[in-house]
Amino acid sequence: QVQLVESGGGLVQPGGSLRLSCATSGIILRNRAVAWYRQAPGKQRELVASIGSGGSTYSADSVKGRFTISRDNAKNTVYLQMNSLKVEDTAVYYCNVPGSSAWGQGTQVTVSS
Predict the structure, then answer these.
(1) Per-residue pLDDT of the chain (113 residues; tens, 9 = 90+)
(2) Which of 14, 38, 52, 108 is 20 to 30 A from 86, comparing alpha carbons?
(3) Which of 11, 6, 13 lies closest to 77 in space, CA to CA?
């Protein structure tokens, strides 16, 4: 059974940084891709970034050059480093393993002055 626990969110000023963590269990992380999604109030959930089992990455145009996804297979954890945060990055951030229906509880990121 796949379980995902997101952490690291918080309140940050525009231009600031946060690092989100997605702790996984129930899977052999090195064999799986993992994706980060976000959902802002009144909007649909959107894909932010993903990382393949081989380390290839994808970032949405809205975060390209500011967000970096990485993984530590030994720690069963995937990270999302978010720099140069903007007010429009405010959302609940979730991680997901493609092919799995499991979602964590999410972590709130609020960017505000």
Answers:
(1) 899 999 999 999 999 999 999 999 998 888 999 999 999 999 999 999 999 999 999 999 999 999 999 999 999 999 999 999 999 999 999 999 998 888 889 999 999 99
(2) 52
(3) 6
Asked if 101 and 94 touch (Cβ cutoff 8 Å), the reply is no
Burial of 40 (0-12, 13-18, 19+ CB in 10 A): middle
Closest CA to 80 of 65, 70, 90: 70
In sequence order, the β-bridge partners of residue 92 are 39, 108
Name beta bridge partners: 49. 36, 59
